[in-house]
Design a protein that fits this description.
By secondary structure, the protein is mainly alpha-helical. It contains 16 helices and no strands. It has one domain (about 5-405).
């Protein structure tokens, strides 16, 4: 069933973002239907915590919409999209868990991620430089959603297949974290060209949140890994990578004919941040009007009626729309993902604690990125992220269970090293 994983993963990333019908929805539905017919419910128990929290989030969203009606806010069909997003998040977990139910190694997954990274770079460069007039063709299909492509090079922003440069930047960060871990921790210098291309691709999206989340996520994630796993990065590859990236960005910054949006990343360019902070303050203030809105939120607010924009912050938006209870459940889900991943970093299996480290880096970067974006409300990003999470944990569970069958005395799902050193390469 592993074929279901790459099909779902590729569909979530590369299929056109047009209309309500989505190929990844169809694949996820087929996966769940198959598991029901075949009675494969046992694999889902491994992710019952995550699924349980998502179920509670659905109940919380229901309460917030009821509160919205009590407070006199008109209900519109878009309000119900939260249920589609949450159900799809659960479906992504279930589908990938089914696909990886017998997977005991990461070899094919590694190949999939590397190929995906290369394709993402190609798409980004083709859009930014309008290779063979591709942007005009995309604009005729996607219309206003792809307005970022039909401008001069100086402010053009590559947005891939997601229809949004920030979401596309978040995807690039996810892939770059994986490649960076290979270079910094596993000394895989051969992947430097891919890492450099992905880093440049972030610049081409114009997504400042993505750039910050990559750098900050790498620093914070490295610190956590060194504390929890005592697995230090290799400074040779780090120094080499930094020198290459600095030289690359320096050269690009002086080639105005080919790259001119460097002003977007200027430290003095804080207008957007300042306006967002004001929106966040207003949103949080309105969410404290009464006890009902404070606890359950006011439902997705109507910007046209209240003159209040989302403000691009997943945490503020969750509190505003679904209250303190909704925000607590969301943070609980993030905590569960991080806590379970950290527990894997002490595994005696070399490949398990290696992959869990790259997953942790992604989790930290994802959490930071959502301070300036509402990616949690974009199903395709969630699908990619949860797919990687379920993949890593499924392989870990399968490897440990396989070892249990060979050595019945094993008793821990995520065994600690008990003072023994990590396996060496």
């Amino acid at each position: 069933m592993f074929w279901l994983f790459p099909v779902f993963f590729i569909a979530a990333i590369f299929t056109p973002n047009i209309g309500l019908f989505r190929i990844e929805y169809l694949v996820a539905s087929a996966g769940i239907l198959f598991s029901i017919i075949m009675g494969k419910w046992g694999i889902y128990t491994h992710f019952r915590k995550e699924l349980g929290i998502i179920f509670l989030m659905i109940l919380s969203a229901s309460m917030s919409l009821l509160t919205q009606s009590v407070l006199g806010y008109e209900f519109i069909w878009r309000d119900a999209m939260i249920f589609v997003r949450l159900v799809f998040a659960a479906a992504a977990i279930l589908t990938v868990a089914l696909a990886c139910s017998r997977l005991t190694d990461f070899q094919r997954s590694h190949q999939l991620l590397v190929i995906t990274a290369i394709l993402v770079v190609i798409i980004t460069l083709a859009q930014y430089y309008n290779v063979y007039g591709i942007n005009d063709k995309l604009f005729s299909i996607y219309a206003e959603r792809y307005r970022w492509l039909i401008v001069g090079t100086s402010w053009r922003r590559a947005l891939g297949t997601f229809g949004n440069p920030n979401y596309w930047g978040a995807l690039i960060v996810t892939l770059l974290m994986y490649i960076t871990h290979l270079i910094f921790w596993r000394n895989k210098i051969a992947y430097l060209p891919i890492a450099g291309s992905l880093f440049v691709s972030i610049i081409f999206t114009g997504s400042r949140g993505s750039l910050v989340s990559y750098i900050a996520g790498l620093i914070i994630g490295t610190f956590i890994i060194m504390i929890k796993a005592n697995d230090k990065p290799r400074f040779g590859p780090i120094i080499l990578t930094v020198l290459i990236l600095l030289s690359t960005t320096s050269v690009m910054g002086n080639l105005d004919k080919y790259y001119e949006n460097k002003d977007r990343f200027s430290i003095s360019n804080t207008h957007t941040l300042n306006s967002r902070v004001e929106i966040w303050k207003t949103a949080l203030s309105k969410s404290s009007d009464n006890i009902f809105s404070f606890l359950f939120g006011q439902g997705p607010r109507k910007a046209a009626k209240d003159k209040l924009l989302i403000g691009d912050n997943a945490y503020v938006r969750t509190w505003r729309d679904y209250g303190l209870i909704g925000l607590f459940l969301y943070l609980l889900l993030l905590y569960t993902l991080v806590q379970r991943t950290v527990s894997l970093m002490n595994s005696e299996h070399q490949n398990i604690h290696v992959w869990s480290q790259s997953l942790l880096l992604m989790l930290i970067a994802w959490s930071i990125f959502k301070l300036s974006a509402d990616t949690w409300y974009f199903g395709r990003s969630v699908a990619v992220f949860l797919s990687y999470y379920v993949l890593v944990h499924s392989v870990a569970i399968n490897q440990i269970n396989q070892e249990k069958e060979q050595a019945p005395s094993s008793s821990s799902l995520y065994p600690a090293t008990s003072g023994r050193p990590f396996p060496q390469k």
